[in-house]
From TrEMBL:
Belongs to the CDP-alcohol phosphatidyltransferase class-I family. It is an enzyme of class 2 (transferase). This is CDP-diacylglycerol--glycerol-3-phosphate 3-phosphatidyltransferase. The gene is pgsA. The lineage of its organism: Bacteria, Pseudomonadati, Pseudomonadota, Alphaproteobacteria, Parvularculales. Pathway: Lipid metabolism; Phospholipid metabolism; phosphatidylglycerol biosynthesis; phosphatidylglycerol from CDP-diacylglycerol: step 1/2.
Amino acid sequence: MANVLTFTRIVLIIPFAFAFLANVSWNMKAALAIFIIAAITDFFDGYVARTRGETSALGAALDPLADKLLVTAALILLTRNGVIHGYGVIAVLVIILRELIVSGLREALGPKGTTLRVTVLAKWKTTAQLAAAGLLLAAAPLGAVGESLRPAAGGVLWLAAVLTAWTGAGYIKSAFALLKEPNDSNRTQ
């Protein structure tokens, strides 16, 4: 059940994008509703996995990937339509680049039989990213709240970018230390 919720989050990205790009007066409200449903699955998939004992390597790999895909899709679309502009684009780049770097480092650690454990601060980072994207969707033209929300939404985006950079630096440091360690099979005895 937990993996179904995670897959649902990934699958919802496509109708989210269609709603976002639709040329109708209610498109941003529909996109926000789909985004919220997808974001809520992030809480429930972990809750279901823990309470039902459904934790798995697949779920551990797909859950953060689903988060990254959803947030990245939203930020790219919001940048495309100009809700995120100017220096806000730097915040988007910080988020996307960090997510790619950390994902690559996790993949590089796979053959060593180790991984980067998710930190509590990284969970807050994901929450901030989802909140920023949701608020920016609500602040978009024709959004649920409108452009008066944009300064606050932009502030949450920068908070998410700072948390993203901070946690990324920690993961990079940890990954480099682990990658410098010799493999067990390469050690001389």
